[in-house]
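Workshop exercise sheet. Pairs work together: one partner reads the sequence aloud, the other fills in the structure field after running the prediction. Swap roles for the next sheet.
Pair: D.N. / O.F.
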Amino acid sequence: NQGSIYDALGIKDSAITNYLSSITLFDSLNDRINVAYLQINVGLSFKSLGQLDKAKKYYLSALSILREEDDQFGVATVSTNLASVFIENEEIDSALAYAQIGEDGYRNLGYDLYTVFPITTKANALIEKQQYGEALASINLAIPLAEKNEMNEELVDLYSAKAKALLNLQRLNEAILFAGKAIETGLTTKSLEDLRDAYQINYLVNKKAGNIAEALISYENYASYKDSVEAKERVGLVNDLETKYRTAQKERQIAEQRLDISTKEATITDQRNKLILIISIGGVVILLGLLILFRARQIQERKMQAALLLEKEKGLDAVITATEEERKRIR
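Structure field:
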């Protein structure tokens, strides 16, 4: 699907347009499963653009279809995606509810590895509700799975969440340990967002523990990565606008080329039609000329035949007259 190509290139608007076209096609074929999974892709694209309400709309539509079709894996996947939208939208109870649906769904299917994703969202939601003990219990289920499968991006979130939960439970030494792990893992992902969040929790933990020098270093790193993320977002916005401009230019050029080709084809067709008309008229004129010539020859031949006939009649009359005169003389 072209939507996936545009998605990979980061051209989200074009990706969404192509996904929606594919949805229309599969809907006409009554292929509801493909419609649902394409709606999930649309939701992911809208989420990446920060348009959470639109993302939620497509996720909920996909969820409805997948439940009707009894696609349990799809239900678990879209529920996990919905949880991430709800937590970003600060709808914590809804985030918890859908994260639990995702976690239970994956576990029932035997896909324990995938439970890492909804558990991470669930843990952050529990922390927002200040349910630190429950959050810690969920995190401790997910971390071994993520470590075993080297899911470093998820591990940064899990280590940071664990450090935050431990901080609020006043278990500072453990909090410092996991805040440090978040930074170490963040350095392997090279994600500005991961490192920003990891240094932020490390700053908070060390500040609480009275480690002023370490807290100051972490804060400076946090501020630096925060600025980098904001600069990246600005650059991303500019790049997105430039991409849209180039795409619009390219589409306009293609449209102009198509119009030029159409115009040329129309001109060629018009010239061809004119040539055919001229040839047709010429043919008619020639035919008329030949017909007139034929008729003239027919008339001429008839005149000659009449003249010959007249001469013959005159000759016959002369013979008859001479014969009559000869007979009279003989008498």
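Discussion prompt: The chain has twelve helices and no strands. What would you look at next?
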